[in-house]
Amino acid sequence: MTDYRYPNERLILVVTVLLVLGVIAFTSVATLCGSLLFVAAMLLLALFLNWLHHSALIRQATPVTPQTMPQLDALVRETAAWLSVGNTVTYVAPAPVLNAYTFGLGGPKAIVLYAGLFSIMDRDELQFILGHEMGHVQLGHTWLNSLLGGMAGIPSPFGAAVILYFAFRWWNRACEFSADRAGLLACGNVNKAVSALVKLATGGAARSAVSQQYALAQLEKQDGDNQLGELLSTHPLIATRIQHLCRYAASDEYRRLQARVNQNRSDRV
Ligand SMILES: [Zn+2]
Questions:
Q1: Order of strands, sheet of 62-63, starting from the edge strand that comes earlier in the sequence
Q2: Domain-by-domain residue ranges, the chain?
């Protein structure tokens, strides 16, 4: 009882399905090519920005060498040797800011320390910061961040863009925990690592042990009210970083690695 079917109905259905499949295949290939082109453009942009940043830095900052800053140069070399980090170049930027960062796609990667750090950090705290930055270099965060950071901007539907945004921030925060561990291994003293982080968070206001204890309690209280802000940030809250670091400092894994770093230390003496 289906003989009344219009003769071309089945043929039209087949053609329609083939057309739909064709459109899906075409748009998939176009999306893939577009994404690959976007990634290539991002890579070129990252290389250009890196060159631009480096040129600007060389004009303003002082490279750390045995001639320009002998004591800091010795500390940089010592820290690199203890952590077995490859070739890096360290600069001191003149701004009175409490910050440090790394950049670079090829080698040697650059570590930038702002001058503000030197007025409030003691030698061990500075070594924690240097170790932290060298950790970023050694674990590949420095070049990965330059590339992947750009890829987080790949044009995507709104929902996917939000997922990418949060995913990259999640990864950024994980990188900070890893780099803090490198800083701890470099300075070898969890109290100094904690005091460096508290000083960074308080702008150097908390210097004595008592004021640091008070500042830490305040930070824990403030950070407890700011969990949502942490999700949007590339850096974990300072109180969270300190908790993670103290937990790591009490682990067997840390003791084993610290023993290896100390071996590197005594080999150099
Ligand atoms: Zn960091």
A1: 62-63, 88-93, 109-114, 100-103
A2: 1-60, 122-268
Q: What is the pLDDT of residue 92?
A: 96
Spacing, Cα 256 to ligand 1 middle (Å): 23
Q: How far is the CA of 229 from the centre of ligand 1 (A)?
A: 18
Q: What is the residue-averaged pLDDT of the chain?
A: 85
3-state secondary structure of 159: helix
What is the Cα–Cα distance from 47 to 123, expressed in whole angstroms? Answer: 34
Tell me how far the alpha carbon of residue 173 lies from the centroid of ligand 1, in angstroms.
9
Q: So what's the pLDDT on residue 138?
A: 94
What is the whole-number distance in angstroms between the Cα of residue 230 and the centre of ligand 1?
15
What was the pLDDT predicted at 224?
64
* Nearest Cα to Cα of residue 197 among 242, 152, 158, 155: 242
pTM equals 0.80
CA of 181 to the centre of ligand 1 (A): 11
145's tokens = 């961040």
CA of 140 to the centre of ligand 1 (A): 12
Which residues in the chain show pLDDT less than 50? none
Token pair recorded at residue 62:
């002082």
